[in-house]
């Protein structure tokens, strides 16, 4: 993640051999990934320990994420994550252990929760400068 709350850039970083691959993602994509990883870990069993997921902020993204596919290898106790590019033919394929899956889910959840709260009506981010909620057609919600 890079930037101030409300104007952040979400970057998923992974090592592919010796190469660092950086994928620009939407906040909702990462939030859904973290939620799904949590559900999978509940089924596979909690990891004995969690790794520490650290990211670097001085790099530019290699591509922007499009579709994200996830598969479970129950025999190997790993999770396969495939991130396809939104614009090009780039693909990032990750094989995560339970420990790395847990670390990634925790890191994403912390980043998402550190952001702006969601509007209770539309789910969009609440901005301290104001929020034009589409559910209220730009007007204040009714007082109960």
Describe this structure in words.
This protein starts with 9 loop residues before the first strand and ends in a 31-residue tail after the last helix. It has 2 helices and 5 strands. The protein has a 5-stranded mixed sheet. The model has no long low-confidence stretch (mean pLDDT 82). α1 packs across α2 (98-113). The chain is globular and about 55 Å long. The chain is 24% helix and 28% strand. The chain has 144 residues and is an alpha+beta fold. The longest helix has 18 residues, at 27-44. A hairpin with a 2-residue loop joins β1 (10-16) and β2.
- Classify the helix fraction into a percent range: 10-25%
Beta content: 25-35%
Largest beta sheet: strand ordering: 1-2-3-4-5
What's the number of helices? 2
Return the average pLDDT rounded to an integer.
82
Largest sheet: 5 strands, mixed
């Amino acid at each position: 993640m890079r930037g101030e709350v409300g104007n952040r850039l979400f970057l998923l970083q992974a090592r592919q051999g010796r190469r660092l691959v950086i994928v620009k993602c939407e906040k909702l994509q990462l939030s859904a990934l973290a939620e799904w990883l949590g559900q999978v870990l509940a089924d596979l069993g909690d990891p004995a320990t969690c790794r520490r997921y650290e990211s670097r902020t001085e790099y530019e993204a290699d591509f922007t994420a499009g579709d994200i596919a996830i598969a479970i290898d129950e025999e190997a106790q790993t999770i396969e994550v495939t991130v396809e590019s939104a614009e090009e033919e780039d693909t990032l394929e990750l094989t995560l252990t339970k420990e790395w899956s847990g670390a990634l889910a925790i890191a994403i959840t912390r980043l998402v929760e550190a952001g702006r709260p969601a509007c209770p009506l539309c789910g969009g981010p609440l901005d301290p400068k104001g929020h034009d909620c589409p559910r209220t057609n730009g007007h204040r919600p009714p007082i109960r």
